[in-house]
Amino acid sequence: MPKPHGGKLILRYQEKKADDFSDYTKIEINTNLSEDVLNIANGVFSPIEGFLSRNDLENIIVDKRLTNDTPWTIPILLDYDGKSNIKPGDRVLLVNNETGVKAILEVEEIYDYDKKKLVDAIFRTKDENHPGVSNIYSMKDKFLGGKITLIDSKTREFDEYNLTPRETRILFKEKRWREIVAFQTRNPPHIGHEYVQKTALTFVDGVFINPIIGKKKVGDFRDDVILKSYETLIQNYYLKERAVMSILRTSMKYAGPREAIHHAIIRKNFGCTHFIVGRDHAGVGTYYGPYDAHDIFNEFPDLGIVPVFFRSFSRCIKCGSVVNDKICPHDQENHINFSGKKIREILNNGKIPPEDMMRKEVAETILQFKQPFVK
Amino acid sequence: MTEEKKFTTISIPTPLAEKIKKRIKGTGFTSLSSYVTYVLREVISGVEEEREEAFSKDDEKRVKDRLKSLGYLE
Known about the structure:
The structure holds 2 protein chains of 2 kinds.
Chain A: E1 25-28, H1 31-41, E2 50-51, H2 54-63, E3 78-80, E4 91-95, E5 102-112, H3 115-123, H4 131-137, E6 142-152, H5 165-174, E7 180-185, H6 191-201, E8 206-213, H7 223-237, E9 243-245, E10 248-249, H8 256-270, E11 274-277, H9 292-295, E12 306-309, E13 313-316, E14 321-324, E15 335-337, H10 340-348, H11 360-367
Parallel strand pairs in A: 1-4, 7-8, 7-11, 8-9, 8-10, 11-12
Antiparallel strand pairs in A: 2-6, 3-6, 4-5, 5-6, 13-14, 13-15
Helix pairs in contact in A: 3-4, 7-11
Chain B: H1 14-24, H2 32-47, H3 57-69
């Protein structure tokens, strides 16, 4: 099992909850930021121990690394309106009602940063239509840097699927898995996904299916639908001792190649040795080339997790199986693509998609939900 | 600012530097320094030891109990 990114699994929470924080300046943070707090505290973002300082941010922008040379590509930032008279050295209470997060921030630095420079480096565009760019532009003008300590959070829906890196590392050890491939998803599985996972699984000890749960767009599959459909797939078509599913709560930034590295680092922290990277990973629109998220891995010989690249896959009528562009000699006219849009349309009409697109059991599970899509 | 202390100079034999310069022609490496940095990062990450995580016995038991209760372990 690889050691956590940066060498040490970060755990930043305080067991004792009796302290009085009434003297602390309170800052309400949004749900996405509170997820960042939880991910820092639980080691998902190891070796990050808090919100970034200016030096680390600058280094990430220029070198895609923290100041200590550890690869890191996505800034973890806490924005601040400057109204609370906070000074470096203060301890501030961060709170969020939805997640019940209460955390102490030890303020080390208050700084501003040119947002245009930031988005241009991270997203390769300044276009406000890009969701990640518009999110940065909507942030307040100052940033707070400093370590956090989680005091409390509340039980939430899907917690039974939520494992921390410490838990997955112990789980993999108990299962005697040495090599683990991680698969990230935001959709129920079709046959193509199963093919990719099983192809990778053939060469390692276990597959870690890690759906991203959280804010969705209208028309997306609901989180409970994704989880139940994967449970059905695993139950019917995987060896129980070879597959584990748990969720990841984090917001998508749509930073394409940089986010692919970020996602790989997260899975390394969970204890995975390999990470599946598909076409246009974490991309949106046409901002990135289809394989930019593959190429960027060449810049990180010291990442500590092996990317497993899949370019494209489809069903070939002549081969009679799922194929990829490296193994099938037949023309495009013999290929049926796994179109998520088409599968969604069929399911939306209450019908079962053809079995060469989606497992019948998976489709039936989805159709058991009155409304499988986000409205 | 990060520009301070960001780089340092090391010496390598001139013939080796010449060999590297030839080798990186036409590759994505833009300089001798970027190639040497790449190679050293690779070497350093390769020799770092794989360590067992130091979880306390109590922690490990608590985690295993949770994993069992959730059906991840039998």
